[in-house]
Every structure is written in C-alpha cells, then in structure tokens.
Amino acid sequence: MGLFLEYGYTSFNKYGEELCGDMVSIVKKNDYTTLVLADGLGSGVKANILATLTSKILSTMVSNNIPMEECVETIVQTLPVCKERGVAYSTFSTIHINNDGKGYMFEFDNPVCIFMSNGVPKELEREELNILNKKIYKTKLDLKDQDVIILMSDGVPHAGIGKTLNLGWQREDIIDYLVKNTSTDMSARCIANVLASASEALYMEEPGDDTTVAAIKIRKESTVNIMIGPPVKREDCDRYVEDFLRNDGIRIVCGGTTSQIVANYLHEEVETDINYIDQEIPPIGYIKGIDLTTEGVLTLRKLIELSEEYLRIDSDYPKNFLGKDGASQLANFLFEQATDVNFFVGQAVNEAHSGLPIDSTLKFKLVEKLSENLKFMGKRINVKYY
Q1: CA pair distance 34, 216, nearest whole angstrom
Q2: All CATH 3.60.40.10 domain ranges in the chain, comma separated
Q3: Phi, psi at residue 83, to the nearest 5°?
Q4: What gap in Å lies between CA 61 and CA 40, rounded to an integer?
Q5: Burial readout 357-381 (b: 16 or more C-beta within 10 A, e: otherwise)
Q6: Nearest Cα residue to 132 out of 69, 75, 51
Q7: DSSP string spanning 297-354?
Q8: How confident is the model at residue 106 (pLDDT cuts 50, 70, 90)?
Q9: How many distinct helices (H) and strands (E) make up the chain?
C-alpha cells in the first residue's frame, strides 16, 4: 500500500472586508505538489493583490524548481509599492513535496508551522537563509504516514486579542488545542477547518484580521468502491457485481434495485435499518460483505449538497461527518477516508420512473458532479459504465 499526499485549507476574511488579504495557491505537477500561503500587508483589496501575486509567483516558480533566491527577487521586483506605507510586502509559507513525503519548506514572516507526527507535536529543524536582506527559513522534509504540517497566517495567533484573550492565542495553546481536538483519522482539510473555526470563535465571529489555515498530510492509500444503479442488460448483472467485488477496499452499494442484485449474487438478504429515521434521507440497509448500503438518487442529491459545503473554504461547517444517515456515512467514506474512488455505474433506466416527469439522466448527472467535486478534493477517480 503506497502513500498519498492530501491538502486542504480554510480562510476567513477580516470582518467587514469583501476580499481576503490571505491567499493559498496550489500547483500539482508530475509527482510534486506545491502549496503557498501568502499574507499581504494590511487587509482588503491591497492586501489581496499582494497575497495573490506572491502566491501565484511562488507556486509557479517553485513548482518549476526555480531557486528561492530567484523567486524572492521576482517578488520584490513585481509587487506594487503601497503609497501609504512605502513598502511592498507579503509574508509566505511554501511547501514543495512529492507523494512520498520528500521535499522542502520555506517560511518568511508567517507564524512558524506546526508539525504533528501521528498526533504528537514535534519541532522541525529550520535553516536560516539571508536572501536580499530577508530572513527566510528552509526545512528539509521527509514525511511519513500520519505526518501533518499546519501553516497559518497571523490571524490565528492574533485571534481573540481585545475580546476573549488579552494577548492573542499563544503558540503552545494552539498546539494544545490541536492535540485535544484533532485525530489521526481526520483529513488535512478537516484539521485546517478545526483550527480556523476555533480562531473565528475566539474573534466572536468577527475576525479582526484575515485568518487562514492550510494543512498537508501524508497518509496511506485508501480505496472506496461504489456501485450505483443496475446494468443495461440483465445478463450482465453477475459480471457487474464480480468486477465490483474484485477490487480491494471499502464497498458501497447505492440504490434499491442495485442492492438486490448484489444481495442475490452473494446469496444474502437486504436488511433495512429502521432504528434511525431521517425526514430527508431514506434509511440505509445492510448486506453481509458490503460496508454500506443506501438508497439511490435522494441520498446522492444530499451527498452532493454535503460535498459543496465541504469544498467551501470560507465555511466553519465541520468537515467530519458523524451522522448515521446514508448521506453522512457516504460523505465520511468518500471525503474523509478515500484517496481513490472507483465508480461502477449501471446505465439502466429505472422502470419505476416510466411515465413520470423524472429526468432519466439524473443519475449520471449526479455521478458526474460528485466525481468533479471529489477531484477538487484531490481524490483520484475512476468511472466505469455498464
């Protein structure tokens, strides 16, 4: 089982500002991922321009293996000078890393990153560089399974100043909060959201500064196989199920007819869970040998809604899913646990919908949208039609 690199971030604007003065830029090239978190001087439009230029320049140049000296020189020559302050300034944290966890990190004037290995905070060795009279810290990276690096703008340590905390959120207290409120089964996106949401709470929902948290995590690959709908030809049912069961990993079946096809093949019964009732989502079922069995279209519609909320970078909506309904359990498997998702999609039209004003292509549209959103989450997607 190989390793997988995942990332995610959450960002809140300073209260009253339409634009964020922090910016995260991510470039994936070959086996490497480059992530930059830049924080422009001040807030609003000017800060947004500074952070956007810095993050885009750095992510583009670093991903092409251009030396940091040239990157910094380009930034200094490119950033517009603020007429009020007479300077062009943006802090940044940059990570350039491959899927095996090897790479490097550069930090300039952002809060020092937090490194956690299997849930335990540790310090990384930092080498001080002087580039164009700027102190920039370089860290060589060799991350292992369950290693997480958390980057942040100064909106995090400034959280609560003058409101809930006199001196802001101290580094040791931030680390302690992460230890107590995150776990090794959380994704990078979930971890970033936990810290950013706590910062927003300390600001009493009115951030006094732009606040951004980004996380990168190395974890083992995890495959989820999901079967949706029956095949066009009934004689293909056995082959359809055999292909589905041949793959290792989590197995999920969506749809009443599909569930019955799988149960018949396995010589098992489909049992419906009547202990948990949800007004919006039909109950889940159980088939021996299958990890999750759900209803089809209604559950997938709700799953799409959850995926849209999960992808929002400015939402404090929790990124972990603890609900017992089918959509929440699907979200947990697909958004939080999976690195790879294999879709097995039957193209038969539901006979029960014949003559009704129901879009016969709805199932395919839902699969297409879900696949698109999962790709935005950084998942590797494979879709096969039957």
Answers
A1: 10
A2: 3-220
A3: -65, -35
A4: 19
A5: eeeeeebbebbebbbebbeebbbeb
A6: 69
A7: HHHHHHHHHHHHHHH-TT--S-SS----SHHHHHHIIIIII-SEEEEEE--PPPGGGT
A8: very high
A9: 9, 18
Q: Which pLDDT tens digit goes with each residue over 256-279?
A: 999 999 999 999 999 998 887 778
For residue 40, list its beta bridge partners.
Answer: 90
Q: Are 157 and 174 in contact (CB under 8 A)?
A: yes
Strand partners for 382: 342
Where helices occur in 112-254 by DSSP H, the ranges are 171-181, 188-202, 237-246
Angstrom distance (rounded) from CA 41 to CA 23: 12
Which is nearest to 335 in space by CA: 347, 323, 346? 323
Are 6 and 335 a contacting pair, CB within 8 Å?
no
Provide the pLDDT for residue 85: 61
Q: How many CB atoms lie within 10 A of CB 283?
A: 18
The answer regarding whether domain 3-220 maps to CATH 3.40.50.11720 reads no
Specify burial of residue 109 (Cβ count, 10 A radius: 0-12, 13-18, 19+).
middle
Q: To which residue do tokens 């670093």 refer? A: 62
Q: Is 145 exposed, middle or buried (0-12, 13-18, 19+ CB in 10 A)?
A: middle
Q: Say if residues 296 and 255 touch (Cβ distance below 8 Å).
A: yes
Residue 377: pLDDT band by 50, 70, 90 thresholds? very high
Placement of tokens 């004003």 in the chain = 357
Question: Any bridge partners for residue 93, and if so which?
Answer: 37, 107
Which residues lie across from 116 on neighbouring strands?
Answer: 121, 148
The count of C-alpha atoms lying within 13 angstroms of the C-alpha of 227, restricted to the half-sphere facing its C-beta, is: 32
Residue 142: burial class (beta carbons within 10 Å; 0-12, 13-18, 19+): exposed
